[in-house]
Amino acid sequence: MNKKKFAIGIDFGGTNIRGGLVDNTGKIKNYIKISTGSQKNYQEIKNKIIFILNKVISKNSSFKKNIAGVGIGFPGLIDVQRGIIIKSPNLPDLRNAPLALDIAKKIELPVVVENDANTIAWGEYCCGKYKNPESMICITIGTGIGGGIIINNNIWRGFSNTAGEIGHMIIKENGIKCGCGSRGCLEQYASASAMIRDAEKAIKRGVKTSLNLNKLTAFDIYKAAKKNDILAKKIFLSSVHYLSLGIASLINSFNPEIIVIAGGVAKAGSFYISPLKKEVYMYAYTSLINKTKIVKSTLGDCAGIIGSAFLILNADLNL
Ligand SMILES: [Zn+2]
Questions:
Q1: Eight-state DSSP code of residue 203
Q2: Please, which residues have CB within 8 angstroms of residue 276's CB and are 6 or more apart in sequence?
Q3: Reported CATH class of domain 130-298
Q4: Is the pTM of this model over 0.90?
Q5: What is the pLDDT of residues 16-61, one digit of tens each?
Q6: What's the gap in Å between 305 CA and the centre of ligand 1?
Q7: What is the distance in A from the centroid of ligand 1 to the CA of 137?
Q8: Could you tell me the CATH superfamily of domain 6-123+302-313?
Q9: From ligand 1's centre to the CA of 7, what distance in Å?
């Protein structure tokens, strides 16, 4: 554990950027959330991060000396060792951006940048209800599907920092085209966007449903499914089915102690997790499955901030 008791965590999302001062027990002080905005050039991204950092630090200026550093969770392919964003799927203009160095110069604290799904997993691993298991895989389901794999008290990044791209596991041959360039990726079948896309298509085809084309989120589909809307239920369970195929393969490959389901979809709780478990247990190799717990995130929207701060606070992590 780092000798200093605090670090700042930033979670850079597609809709919001969240930040806060995190202590070494995982408590967040001075939580700040601002809109990511639509103009997403590198200068603006830096300005928004600096804005949050200044807000958090000025509220705590008397003990800046106790702040060990800043961790930033950012979507995309990150060179963690050099603190560079190699590329980010929704920010095509951002290439080889030296974010850690640029922020460190301004703020005069050590800065670490890591893939956002990895920071969520790291947050759940360090501070969630099921903390410090032997191994953990965290699957974040939202617009896309992200993943973080924790093995031997470390984030498993792979040979060139791209491990954990669970959303791009291919679960259907010649399936739906994915933004990554491949076909049949899990995220095309089990993400919130996939659910919305399938609902839109069915409504346009004239399928009878209580769902409304003008107000259609994954949460609306969940609410309608709970009220027994046939289309909503079908879409919801189809997403559960494909995710269960992905999870069964992960269990067979890694035999993790715990799988955490995070992101917006996890808010459906046992309505989502119970049928998911049932299917996973059906598909996974039985002798391994008995030991793997499947649970929903216990830190919710805060996992990314806490995990980012713990990139700094948990000094055992190999960066
Ligand atoms: Zn893909």
A1: H
A2: 240, 243, 244, 247, 261, 294
A3: alpha beta
A4: yes
A5: 999 999 999 999 999 999 998 876 789 999 999 999 999 998 866 6
A6: 26
A7: 19
A8: ATPase, nucleotide binding domain (3.30.420.40)
A9: 34
